[in-house]
Amino acid sequence: MSDTRTSQAGAENAQVSSHGSEADRLPLGIATLLFVRERGIVVLWVLLCVFFTFWDWPYFASVANGLLILQAAALTAVFALAVALGVISGALDLSVPGTAAMAAVIAGTILTAGGPIWAALLAGLAAGVAVGFVNGVITLTGLNPLVVTIGTLSVLTGLASVISGGYNISGLAALKFMGTARYWGVPSHVFIVAAVYLVATFFLTKTRHGVRMIATGGNPEAVRRVGINANAYKLLGFVLSGLLAALAGLMQTALVTEASPQAGPGIIFQALTAVALAGVSLAGGRGSLPKVLVGAIVLATIADGLTIKGVPPYWATVSTGVLMIGALMLDKVLTHTISERLVAIGNITVHGGAKGGRAK
Questions:
Q1: pTM, whole model, 2 decimals?
Q2: What residue numbers bound the domain in which 51 lies?
């Protein structure tokens, strides 16, 4: 299955590359499908903004509300980034909420004991790295990553409750610099999200290790054949996922100035929806991190627009589920259709060239 999927993706990429310089030779239908797959999330967000601008006039279209949307999207964006990096490398990690809770209570415990802020943050992030490493090592034994990370989620939630005594750890105002504080009128965690996405995008697209991580997610066997340690890059995917989940947990703690041992299950579904909207292949090997960020903003925009109109919040949950299913179905249909049509064009070109050769 992995070889077939990668072969199809390779054929698609090769066809797009060979015909990209001759865009006029690409049928309009294929060009449209490619545009929808690659830019559809941005178009969806623009359409939502236009719709809510008129529906929620004059409250939606304002700078203050725009900042509220960014603030609401920030946490989802970091959780989604944690999931996306894992998925792209072929390491779907569902223990993200538990990792966030563990990092939060560890940092909270250190702060309430009088420890320095830097030690609390470092310990929380280190916990995320450790969780990711353990997830990766166990998964590399051949166990299903979904089963492993669901089990880890349960373990982490229980351990977080043990550490905190089952109660929230409050009075963590020392972390407000990365939560409730504002710089130039913009919430501090918005800057954190922007910085993290810039670094992650650069790593994934401009560095050798990032490119290899993507290749490992697409076809680990092919990566092994060229002498690359595929297991190491899958492990790296888990570690990065754990690190970012821990960062998200610390940011969440900073926003509410208390650490909760409870792993909110809703956040993983929001993160997965943002990833699905971005067109990240859940099979691994394909995805755009900037589009994951836009996916998180889309979810926040919908929730904000409905809230302004007074629509009950559970409808936002309904819309999240509908968007996830719809995005997965659309991506599957688009990818299959584009691949088939490009292969058909390639066959026509080959046959045409062969005929031309015989004519000579």
A1: 0.82
A2: 2-6+43-344
